Amino acid sequence: MIHKHKVNSGGKEMRGLVMNVQNKVWIFPALALLTLIIGHLCRESCVFLHGDILGLDLETLGIFFYSVLFLAVILSRKFSLEDVGMKLIAAIVSIGVGAEIILLNFQIQNKTYCPKCLISGFFLIGMFFVISRYIKVWIVILLIVFGAIFTSFTFSGSVVPSYAEEIRYPSFGSEKAQTEIIIYSDYLCPACRKVDSQLNDILRKLKNQVKIRFIDVPLHPGSLEYAKLFLYVWFESGNNLEHALKVRDMLFHKAQMRMTQHEVMRSLSIQGIPYKKDEDTAKTIFRQIYNPLMQTDKIRATPTMVIVKDNNRKSYIGGPEIMKAIEAVAAHP
Known about the structure:
The protein is α+β, with helices and mostly antiparallel strands. It has two domains: 2-158, VKOR domain (de novo design (two linked rop proteins)), CATH 1.20.1440; 172-331, 3-Layer(aba) Sandwich (Glutaredoxin), CATH 3.40.30. 64% of the residues lie in helices and 12% in strands.
């Protein structure tokens, strides 16, 4: 009898715990939303993983999706629509789980992982297990399959731009130097813009002691056009570091203003900066040089700096890490 009483008591406690979680189901979308917002505001680098669904950026879509879920849970309780409301929410979450399966598979295939995506996805799965009981199992399965199929047809993702032929590419500083500094950045990456301005003075001091290379990573939509512009100017100016730094600074500024490639070209002409538009050669540089280097250095985020010395390569990601490393090189080039 005592044993039976304990079992019944334990069962009640478990049911009570489940009900308590169900009553606070709003926590799941709230935490997922918070994860995405904090990840966007506090990142020191731009993760080298981009994707969209029907042209909508995944980060923006994720913030919208979890905002809708959060409001739906709150409003369904406020207007006593828990039955109908939770069924609808369970259906949306089930479709979301199907989409999450495709997105997770994309990360696994490319061996590139987005922490905030994985964390927010974890909260979505948690929410799914709590509320999926509101609709029948066969409907849940159909909705997950629908979400997976829809996402597989509408999702467009990129990790390393794939654009292959031999050609020289921008190189600055001393070609005979034993130390090589490679800076990976994206003109539309806020963290890159910040670290670029901090690096310039040190690079000027090191130009006779190290080899310097800039590799533009087209991480954000539209940034490839700016990467091409840098090459167009380089075709005319050659390996002049001072000129390159000036142009890069200008491109970061124009990118912040979201100017089109045509507008930037007009600005270059007005400022008397010569350039040669040669898209085929620019693409060849990406195919033959930039893409293999990004794969060699396993670039997953910008800004990243790689220091090559005595055939050893070491990567530094994010502003603080990069500045600490470059200052160490300046102290002992």
